[in-house]
Amino acid sequence: MTILLEKKYIPLANYFSGATNASIKLTFSEIEQIMGQNLPNAAYLNKSWWKKVKAPAKHFHAWVDAGYFVTNVEPDRFVVFERIDSTNGTGTGTDEEDQDILLIRTAEHGDARSLAALQKTVESESNYMLYAKDERTQSTQKVRKQIIEWKQSGHSTIILAILNGQHVGFLMIIGNDAKRAAHRATIELGLQKDAQGKGIAKALLKKAEEWSKEKGISRLEVSIVEENEAARNLYEKAGFKSEGIRENSMMIDNKPHNELYLAKFLD
């Protein structure tokens, strides 16, 4: 991008830069989930805020620089963005099926409410998470505090997967304060069922490795229930290797289950 955007609009710019659809309709809520922050009041009150394409405003570069322009706004409801063919100034007119738009980014404090809801959904759908359905009370305030504290620590973070404007997955990287263990971190990955099979978990792992390398973390560790073949295949394909079994470490439906430990050394 040639224009320096406010930090809050960079995720939105990244979202549109990865889009190829002729038309994209996003609710105000979805736009804020993409950004991880609230839109300004002017975006809710004035259609003109969305239609601006001149300085001193800069926010519009988030979509204009990717070839999109706002064609319809329903205040506090949705915004329609359409790709313009740069050769003739008209819409692309493509009849191709819309493609999923995936954005992977680190969590901001504004993501707390959506992340808390996402964790609850993932835990209710999975048989292999540490917490069972409705077992954990995760308030927005608690999640927000965790996001802020982890960002300040520099060795832990939460990475989000946002699919078509909706939070669908997360990956937590939990590092260490102790210098002797500062080179390693534990990861925890959760993904909604309806978002599985789209390469999202793989994308989360890739981002986790990139972030970890930047922070000087050279070893990632994860534990999974031994029967969780899908997770085992995911991690092994990503280069994780088994390092042992923790016997009867999980009680699921009142039955003992082993955990498999895996780790990966980052180049």
From TrEMBL:
<dbReference type="InterPro" id="IPR000182">
    <property type="entry name" value="GNAT_dom"/>
</dbReference>
<protein>
    <submittedName>
        <fullName>GNAT family N-acetyltransferase</fullName>
    </submittedName>
</protein>
<dbReference type="InterPro" id="IPR056079">
    <property type="entry name" value="DUF7662"/>
</dbReference>
<dbReference type="Pfam" id="PF00583">
    <property type="entry name" value="Acetyltransf_1"/>
</dbReference>
<dbReference type="GO" id="GO:0016747">
    <property type="term" value="F:acyltransferase activity, transferring groups other than amino-acyl groups"/>
</dbReference>
<dbReference type="Pfam" id="PF24698">
    <property type="entry name" value="DUF7662"/>
</dbReference>
<keyword id="KW-0808">Transferase</keyword>
<feature type="domain" description="N-acetyltransferase">
    <location>
        <begin position="102"/>
        <end position="267"/>
    </location>
</feature>
<dbReference type="InterPro" id="IPR016181">
    <property type="entry name" value="Acyl_CoA_acyltransferase"/>
</dbReference>
